[in-house]
């Protein structure tokens, strides 16, 4: 049985006080989530330390949205994986399309970040996905394969065991356009086949989340697909009732 995971990516939203209230709302409803479904919230860096205290012993895990590719030193504005881990966060989102697109994060940089995060016991939630024009040009499988081979396939099997993948078609992120459940399943099965080519049977154990305008009204159908193991949720994770409703959609 693979893990079932629903992770909320808050992006650059909420003040610390709003974040505290949102976590309180999530915790008030967490008892409704079926046993076996893992919840993760990914807050801005500024919220991590109080969020870790608030989430202690709740069963809800905490993630950062990025980390540096260096251990420490003269990298103004960066946050090292060891610093993130010291807050109590146990996951870090890496490779999000917004980081790739707006901050020029390359596969090579993401491999460095992923390796360093793992070294410091942060489990990467590693995002992959094609842009609209890539899907329209029918190169979406090649794009995703390249993203996986450049980073995930460079890891050892011990490292892979800690990684969660998130397939997020860029055209579906924050646009209200969701991939159909058939499109999601087709790509998730393909991702698993790319992993299997390198890691064999271990590919069956890797949790692959879907992300892109996932909401209470569509999560059920998407999560019912055999190779979809949950969701990475952006906008809908900012409303506790929606986030929890999605987590109840397995
Ligand atoms: C995301 O940014 O990871 C995401 C899936 O966003 P949204 O759910 O808002 O499309």
TrEMBL record:
**Which family does this protein fall into?**
Belongs to the triosephosphate isomerase family.
Where are the active-site residues found? 96, 168
Q: What is this enzyme's catalytic activity, as reactions? A: D-glyceraldehyde 3-phosphate = dihydroxyacetone phosphate
Question: What class does this enzyme belong to in the EC scheme?
Answer: isomerase
> Which superkingdom heads the taxonomic lineage of this protein's source?
Bacteria
Per the record, the pathway is:
Carbohydrate degradation; glycolysis; D-glyceraldehyde 3-phosphate from glycerone phosphate: step 1/1; Carbohydrate biosynthesis; gluconeogenesis
GO cellular component: a single term? cytosol
Identify the EC number(s).
5.3.1.1
What protein name is recorded for this chain?
Triosephosphate isomerase
Quaternary state and partners of this protein?
Answer: Homodimer.
UniProt lists the gene as tpiA
Alphabetical list of PROSITE patterns matching this protein: TIM_1 (PS00171), TIM_2 (PS51440)
Chief place of localization:
cytoplasm
Flavoprotein as a keyword of this entry, yes or no, is: no
A GO term, aspect molecular function: triose-phosphate isomerase activity
Q: Which PANTHER family match?
A: TRIOSEPHOSPHATE ISOMERASE
Q: Which UniProt keywords apply?
A: Cytoplasm, Gluconeogenesis, Glycolysis, Isomerase
């Amino acid at each position: 049985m693979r893990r079932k995971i629903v992770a909320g990516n808050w992006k650059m939203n909420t003040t610390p006080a709003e974040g505290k209230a949102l976590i309180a709302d999530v915790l008030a409803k967490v008892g409704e989530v079926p046993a076996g479904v893992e919840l993760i919230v990914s807050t801005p860096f500024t919220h991590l330390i109080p969020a870790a205290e608030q989430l202690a012993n709740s069963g809800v895990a905490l993630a950062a949205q990025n980390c540096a590719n260096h251990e420490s030193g003269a990298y103004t504005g960066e946050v090292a994986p060891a610093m993130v881990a010291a807050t109590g966060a146990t996951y870090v989102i890496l490779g999000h399309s917004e980081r790739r697109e707006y901050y020029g994060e390359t596969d090579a940089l993401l491999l460095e970040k992923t390796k360093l995060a793992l070294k410091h016991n942060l489990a990467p939630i590693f995002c992959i996905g094609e842009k609209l024009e890539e899907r329209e040009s029918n190169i979406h499988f090649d794009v995703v394969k390249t993203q996986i081979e450049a980073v995930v396939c460079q890891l050892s099997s011990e490292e892979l065991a800690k990684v969660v993948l998130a397939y997020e078609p860029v055209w579906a992120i924050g646009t209200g356009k969701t991939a159909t459940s058939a499109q999601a399943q087709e790509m998730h099965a393909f991702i698993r086949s790319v992993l299997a080519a390198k890691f064999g049977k271990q590919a069956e154990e890797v949790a692959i989340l879907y992300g892109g305008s996932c909401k209470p009204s569509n999560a059920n159908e998407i999560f019912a697909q055999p190779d979809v193991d949950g969701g990475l949720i952006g906008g809908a994770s900012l409303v506790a009732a929606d986030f929890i409703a999605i987590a109840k959609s397995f």
